[in-house]
Amino acid sequence: MNPFTERVMEIIQAIPQGKVMTYGQIAKEAGSPRGARQVVRILHTMSAKHNLPWHRVINIKGEIVIPDEEIAYSQRAMLEAEGVFFRSNGLVDLKKSRHVPEINDVDLI
Q1: Which residues make Cβ contacts (< 8 Å) with residue 96, sequence separation at least 6?
Q2: What tens digit of pLDDT does each residue of 53-97 get?
């Protein structure tokens, strides 16, 4: 596994309940500011195998972007159950719910 993939997985594992991070935010934290699509690929291929909390990752607008309506509904339900704040327009309130890791957050895993 390459270092970027490992770092992305560590960052996603460190997102606490009730918080979210964006694809681009994770890519930047992992050392590749333009690697948001790679984060999507990693989530798609590694979430089940590595038990990643995939539901805590959304886009920069606060949208759940999974095209499958049933899975998207499940993602929203899981986030709401954890206490993630949604605005009246259906978007995650990133001011209240975005996780901004401290330098040592990921090192604690």
Answers
A1: 85
A2: 999 999 999 999 999 999 999 999 999 999 999 999 999 999 999
